[in-house]
Amino acid sequence: MYDRNLDGRELTFGVSGKLWKNVLIMYDRQTGSLWSHLMGEAVVGPLTGKRLTMYPAVMLTYAEWKKLHPDTLVLEKGGRGLFGSSRDPYEGYYYSSRTGIIPEKYRDKRLHPKTFIIGLTLPPPAAGGAKAAKAYPFADLNRAGVVNDTFAGRDLLVAYCEGAKAGVVFDRRMDGKVLTFSPEPAEGAAGAAKGEGGSCRYMRDGESGSRWLRLTGLAVEGPMKGKRLEPIQSTQAFWFGWKDYYPKSEVYRHPN
């Protein structure tokens, strides 16, 4: 999700139908520049090199979203064809060995090409260094539940929910202290009774013992109740697309 205001100018975007490194490309109607969906950066045209501001966002199942945000408004596009149905037209693609039309630029066997990951990029700790990138595979996140990580000088929390097929990255500093989190088994009925929303999926910090919702970073019980962790921009992607953009990306692996 991006802010489409750039340098004091409001841009409107469309899908170009083109690919760059096997990732979709959009275009802006004001200049005709082509933009990477993955990076939010213009790669061809008058605005080449410009970047849109990214908003922290998460892709998850609608069922889980409704539990967390029951008053959500839904944008429904017209038509009841393939994309107007509840069936995902790309479901078969997710589980196939196909990686795209364009051959992979880099061969990297650390992960299967179709592995779902949470991709993260951060500014380098030292001035003038290269942007740091890291990939967190869904399977490893599922085994961990939550990951307390330190990367590129930031203290991070990566929280994952298998039921929602979603992961979120947070800054685990709160009020000047670094918190350490551990997963807590889902207690959907208890949480619903308290009006917390969501069935996924709690975690606790070891410093205060407070209970937090994994996907929103909101403390719902304990001394930290009402506090909310700061989300950090991340992207859900296939490994084959991510590694072509960030070939030096680190990869998180669960120790067990």
Describe the model.
The chain has five helices and 22 strands. With 256 residues, it is mainly beta. Strand 18 (211-213) and strand 19 (219-221) form a beta hairpin.
What pattern of helices and strands is seen along the backbone? EEEEEEEEHHEEHEEEEEEHEEEEEHE
DSSP helix count?
5
Mean pLDDT, nearest integer? 84
Low-confidence segments, ≥5 residues, pLDDT <50?
Answer: 188-193
DSSP E strands, number: 22
Strand order of the largest sheet: 4-5-6-7
For the record, the count of structural domains works out to: 2
Distance between the termini: 34 Å
Main sheet properties? 4 strands, antiparallel
Q: What percentage of the residues does DSSP assign to strands (E)?
A: 25-35%
Give the % helix: 10-25%
Choose one word for the global shape: globular
Radius of gyration: 19 Å
Structural class: mainly beta
Keywords:
256 residues, mainly beta, four-stranded antiparallel β-sheet, 22 strands, 34% strand
What's a quick, concise take on this entry?
With 256 residues, this protein is mainly β. The chain is built from five helices and 22 strands. It has helices spanning 62-68, 91-94, 138-144, 188-193, 239-245; strands at residues 2-3, 5-6, 9-10, 13-20, 23-28, 34-36, 42-44, 53-54, 116-122, 132-137, 146-151, 154-161, 166-171, 173-174, 177-178, 181-184, 202-205, 211-213, 219-221, 230-231, 235-238, 250-251.
